[in-house]
From TrEMBL, chains A, B:
Keywords: DNA-binding, Iron, Transcription, Transcription regulation. One of its GO terms (molecular function) is DNA binding. Coiled coil: none annotated. One of its GO terms (cellular component) is cytoplasm. Homodimer. Residues 119-148 are annotated as: Disordered. Residues 119-129 have a biased composition (Basic and acidic residues). This is Iron (Metal) dependent repressor, DtxR family. It comes from Halorubrum cibi. It is found in: Cytoplasm. Belongs to the DtxR/MntR family. Residues 1-65 form the HTH dtxR-type domain.
Length: 234, 234
DNA sequence: GCCATAATTTAGCCTGTCCTAATTTAATAC
DNA sequence: GTATTAAATTAGGACAGGCTAAATTATGGC
């Protein structure tokens, strides 16, 4: 039996938290992300452990098993293929793809996944610039990126990822031209981390909170993974 | 809150049974179609009644309310749009579209539905020849069709619908050229209802069980709804 | 009209997923 | 080292959706 949406969402969340801070991940961090009560997550984690999708130490935290990671990465592949498809073939606006993909990722078949990948010619990155795991379900490499908030005045960088966050922010960023593949220059870093960028010869100010979820690569170490047209084939 | 897949599937089944035999529909007919125990369906029907999606008389049967019918028709629209899309844009083989659409129909948003319809240019029929309900969610008209099993030797008819049934049968029928829009002639009706057809100058024998789920229109009363290219725009 | 049978509901139980409130454990301050 | 506090678990309850077995109702034959 394939895992339920609740199980898959929990695995996906643990995966992301492990990427950000390393294992073990705490119960309340998971609960916060999923917007569920802690006690609900505790009982879900018990079931995950029964199914050998995670290992855990009570009061310490949880960690994905290989089996659990594979499930998480497959869901991630679904999510990113769907986002790419929605944007490229159904003309979805950038900021709406996340919500739709978040639901559908749990319900598409292997067949659907294959045909999606084929139709898209095995894309390597989704519309936010995030890497799409391959058919082998190896976890994608971490890119050599830093948050925009860590840049200094004068830096010339390429926007590499604009992570999923709320729709309004994404719509605004797309509107002013801040999308993966765009080259920008840091014009100013003001108090409280407010950053001013030169985007296509126009200045745009970005508050620090938003800047932390935008990843960039220095123009010196640009590789194929951050070329402007980042949808290569396999 | 939008209805769960279980609720939607039950409404869809009642809708189909009402079309076939008229209300009220019996509990065990629903249970058979859904492959659930009768007692399970009884408790689901109680919940449907609480939500005013059906009316029912214990031991007599159930009937959709306007509200219930609208939900059923919307799910039907999702199903048929998805089938059309899978076949036309993702290159799904005819016989696989049903299963995938049956899952996804419960999980797509209104936005997805709109973009699907737009991309397909508001198709009126799905790949099986079934009518696709419009945005207004009016139940589609019943076509002036009869089952292939009711034809007589010498009749010239157009295949109008080949209803969803098991994948192997559909694959076989597609293989021998029996798909919506094809004109055929009845060559022979043998004992036990075995029917022989002339399809593109080749004879094909179809057992009665299969022939009952194939609908045809006489070549005399062909209207736009059964033209060979049946995907018109609105 | 009564009886056998088929259809249906009721009773009772289970699991998954959710919650709040109470308790326990771990970590931190001092 | 103890006291406070934060994190996590346990206790207990709700509801949806599933089941089997037992009881009930309707129906068709005669």
């Amino acid at each position: 039996m394939s895992p339920s949406p609740v199980i898959e969402d929990t695995l996906k969340t643990i995966y992301h938290l492990q990427q950000e801070a390393g294992p073990p991940v705490g119960t309340s961090d998971i609960a916060d992300r999923l917007d569920k009560a802690q006690a609900t997550v505790t009982s879900t984690l018990d079931r995950l452990e029964d199914q050998e999708l995670i290992t855990r130490e009570p009061y310490q935290g949880s960690e994905l098993t290989d089996k659990g990671r594979t499930v998480a990465v497959e869901v991630l592949r679904h999510h990113r293929l769907l986002e790419t498809y929605l944007a490229d073939h159904l003309d979805y606006p950038w900021e709406l793809v996340h919500e739709e993909a978040d639901r559908l990722e749990h319900h598409i078949s292997e067949e659907f996944e294959r045909r999606l990948a084929e139709t898209l010619e095995n894309p390597r990155r989704d519309p936010h610039g995030d890497p799409i795991p391959g058919e082998d379900l190896e976890p994608p490499n971490q890119d050599p990126m830093r948050p925009l908030s860590a840049c200094e005045v004068g830096d010339r960088v390429v926007i590499t990822r604009v992570s999923d966050r709320n729709e309004d922010d994404l719509a605004y960023l797309a509107d002013v031209g801040i999308t993966p593949g765009t080259a920008v220059r840091i014009v100013d870093v003001a108090p409280f981390g407010m950053i001013t960028l030169d985007v296509d010869d126009t200045e745009q100010a970005i508050p620090e909170g938003v800047a932390t979820s935008i990843r960039v690569t220095s123009l010196n170490d640009v590789d194929d993974s951050v070329s402007v047209d980042h949808r290569g084939d396999a």
